[in-house]
Design goal:
heterodimer, A: 57 residues, mainly alpha, B: 716 residues, two-stranded antiparallel ribbon, globular
Chain lengths: 57, 716
């Protein structure tokens, strides 16, 4: 659409792959993270979330 | 195991508390002065250092870096010691951080009103102050990392993750956006030009919101909401997802500030997609904060601090819903450049930042001075009055935004604009500006009540500078994962690795978006008729920057029928290749100026700058009377051109050598033009107006956007 700006990118070979790489990257990171979180032992979750509350001051 | 005794450093927390309250009052007061300039454009007339273009950056810098900055450091220094069970790494570094930061604020408060600015929003400070910020940030970083390393708590809690992300990302953003070529002690040019400069600036600008106003405050939320309500965070699992996806996605979203501009469409689309995705982690965080209070709403009714937190988190939810919506190109086409955006950011700052910090201040003053709050009733009144203030501030601006957008875009059946005169769209929304100022006044009154309450509480309390604590030291365990230890639990005790991973997460987005823009050769003009500014125009451009004209005038015509009809041909990327820095602006309180050149004669500009209402009845622009009093400073014109040459602007050696000659010639030509008006001749004919600043500014304004017109003439 904004054709005058296209030449900025025409010089870069395979520029089309950029957004695809970005999406895949995000997808992989996100799915891995969800898996890690699901597999997290319940005991350590309780322990960690109590950290701010375990002292009076 | 035997417990170790040590002391928490409350003295540094106290200093940051004082600074937060003080700068909060100052920053909001300047905001109010700015708000009143919309209604009474004359009330500070003739005082150059209190004109709108200089006060507005002072307001934004004061509330962001002085008020929220000190508030965030206050919360970090308090919570970090407790979460890590350790005194800060070094008292000296703490003090250097505190006093260094205050000195930077004072330097900003002096230089910005003097017009010493780089013009880039929220990064206006000139290069010596930029270096000072970097040094102080490093001092803070060493202090924080040092404390993390000597901790007595094996796992770092989620609040600390957000502090780490803030530390790393702000450093990266600050350095890359402020790469500039110094010309004099307080003047520099951005090393990037035009499109690239815009891209880097809004990568910074958006993420200054993300990593200075959001992530550290989320850290505070994760500590203070559980602490005040005495309940653990709703979901620790959710906080892990919240943290990693938020920092990873946020950094990509910058280009949504540049939709429909001359930025490559590919980058615009990427910005939109990630901005829309951002709603998920943001709302994850909001839900996590609010649901921490599940089953404890009775406490919220009684405790003003929790009330502040609830409205703060709700405000966070509102503005992070609005943000992604505004990133849709169709919505952005309406909202961009209007007062809607000002309303949007103030929901974030007044509710989310202001209320989180207010709640925290009320809580900390009791903890540090070991006493009850002087008046709970007063705190409740503050809450009520400030909440009404926020609504009265934001809602009129939403209405104003829609009014502006619809009026700007409305056509007659014959194809002409219904409101061809921009001023009709300004005078129409004056009632909204009045309500906004009333809302801001209420908010400030509320904050003054807080200041009074805090002072009174301090007077009745007993301050404890070094607070005794007893904790068992950590026993060494294997650095590899233990049996049954989850991956993230392991990561939470491997703090260096954690920091590296967080850094990688924030670098990816910036790198993918910005590197392609930088590596492409930019010094080749893409439009052959686009030429560098003449010496006089260059000086005029620096005056435009000094006076902060870009705070109210954009220089970026979007490719819409309504904008082309109003302003002229839409802006092309190739027109900005010599613009160090870019001056596209982000708000149209006044009209766009990109095609201003040759639209009116020199006399019109002369009269308009001296008394805007003489040429444009109803205008709310300040008058710039000092521009005809001050001689144009040409002592560094050649140095400025040389700096531009180093940045790739093709001035010839002849042009640099003859800079002053060329400058005087062009000024004389303008003087001849001005003298054609008998009234001007009568009043100023015998004076040396050609030596004054106003002539340079006129030269620059008359040049704006004219280069491609020359191209068209050549084609004919």
């Amino acid at each position: 659409m904004i054709s005058f700006a296209k030449h900025y990118f025409e010089g870069i070979k395979g520029i089309e792959i950029y957004p695809i790489i970005s999406l895949l990257l995000f997808f992989t990171v996100f799915v891995t993270m969800v898996l890690i979180v699901i597999k997290m032992p319940k005991k350590s979750i309780e322990l960690h979330s109590e950290i701010p509350l375990d002292s009076e001051n | 195991m035997e417990k170790e005794q040590f002391y928490y450093d409350n003295k540094i927390v106290k200093l940051f508390l004082y600074a937060t309250v003080l700068w909060g009052v100052v920053g909001m007061l300047v905001g109010l002065m700015v708000a009143f300039l919309f209604i009474f454009p004359n009330y500070l007339e003739g005082i150059s250092w209190l004109s709108f273009g200089r006060l507005r950056p002072l307001h934004t810098n004061a509330v962001i870096f002085a008020f929220v900055g000190n508030g965030v450091f206050l919360g970090i220094y308090y919570s970090m010691q407790r979460l890590l069970k350790a005194r800060m790494f070094s008292d000296t570094l703490s003090k250097i951080h505190f006093w260094g930061w205050q000195l930077i604020i004072v330097a900003a408060a002096i230089t910005l009103p003097l017009g010493l600015t780089s013009s880039k929003e929220y990064a206006e400070l000139e290069w010596p102050i930029d270096i000072a910020i970097t040094l102080i940030w490093v001092v803070m970083g060493i202090n924080m990392i040092g404390t993390i390393l000597k901790r007595r708590q094996r796992h770092i809690y989620v609040a600390i993750w957000f502090y780490i992300a803030t530390l790393v990302t702000v450093a990266v953003l600050h350095i890359f956006n402020n790469l500039e070529m110094p010309v004099t002690a307080f003047k520099s040019y951005s090393i990037y030009a035009g499109v690239q400069d815009a891209m880097v600036q809004w990568w910074y600008g958006h993420n200054a919101v993300a990593f200075f106003l959001t992530t550290p405050v989320l850290g505070l939320m994760y500590y203070f909401v559980p602490k005040v309500s005495n309940r653990p965070i709703y979901s620790y699992r959710l906080s892990i997802i919240h943290f990693w996806s938020l920092i990873f996605i946020y950094i990509w979203a910058g280009p949504h500030h540049l939709l429909y501009t001359a930025l490559p469409e590919w980058a615009q689309n990427l910005g939109t997609v990630f901005s829309v995705m951002l709603i998920f982690p943001s709302w994850g965080g909001m839900i996590n904060g609010l649901l921490t209070l599940r089953g404890a709403w009775d406490k919220v009714r009684e405790n003003p601090i929790l009330k502040f937190f609830v409205v703060a988190i709700t405000g966070y939810g509102m503005s992070t819903f609005e943000g992604p919506m505004l990133s849709f190109k169709s919505v952005n086409a309406i909202a961009h450049y209007t007062d809607w955006i000002v309303g949007h950011v103030h929901i974030g700052t007044l509710a989310w930042n202001g209320f989180m910090i207010s709640g925290m201040l009320y809580w900390l003053v009791q903890k540090l001075w070991k006493t009850e709050l002087y008046s709970k009733k007063l705190a409740n009144s503050h809450f009520l009055i400030a909440t009404i203030g926020i609504l009265l501030y934001a809602i009129p601006l939403y209405v104003a935004g829609f009014t502006q957008a619809t009026m700007w875009k409305e056509f007659n059946p014959d194809g002409t604009l219904v409101y061809g005169n921009f001023l009709e769209t300004v005078t129409k929304i004056m009632p909204m500006y009045m309500m906004r100022a009333a809302g801001g006044t209420l908010y400030l009154i509320g904050f003054l009540m807080l200041a009074y309450n805090i002072i009174k509480t301090i007077k009745i309390g007993q301050f404890v500078g070094d607070e005794l604590a007893e904790v068992a030291p950590l026993t060494p365990i294997s650095s590899s994962r233990l049996a049954g230890e989850g991956f993230h639990s392991w990561l939470e005790r491997r703090t260096v690795l954690f920091t590296i991973l967080a850094t990688v997460a924030i670098l990816i987005g910036g790198a993918v978006e910005i590197v392609p823009l930088i590596v492409v050769p930019s010094n080749i003009p893409t439009i052959t008729s686009v030429k560098p500014y003449s010496p006089l125009e260059l000086e005029g451009r620096d005056l435009y920057i000094r006076e902060g004209c870009n705070n109210c005038h954009s220089q970026m015509i979007r490719p819409f029928r309504s904008e082309v009809a109003r302003y002229g041909e839409y802006s092309k990327a190739g027109e900005f290749v010599y613009d160090h820095p870019f001056l596209w602006g982000s708000k149209r309180t006044g009209p766009d100026l990109h095609r201003e050149g040759q639209k009116y004669n020199d006399n019109w500009h002369f009269n308009h700058l001296l008394d805007p209402r003489s040429t444009s009845p109803g205008s709310i622009m300040p008058s710039y009377s000092w521009l005809i009093l001050n001689d144009l400073d040409v002592s560094s014109t050649a140095d400025k051109m040389n700096a531009m040459v180093k940045l790739g602007v093709p001035y010839t050696q002849f042009e640099v050598d003859k800079a002053l000659y060329l400058l005087r010639n062009q000024a004389s030509e303008i003087m001849v033009n001005l003298n054609q008006d008998p009234e001007f001749k009568k009043a100023y004919g015998d004076s040396n107006i050609q030596d004054k600043e106003i002539v340079a500014l006129i030269a620059y304004l008359q040049r704006l956007g004219t280069d491609i017109k020359a191209d068209k003439t050549a084609l004919k």
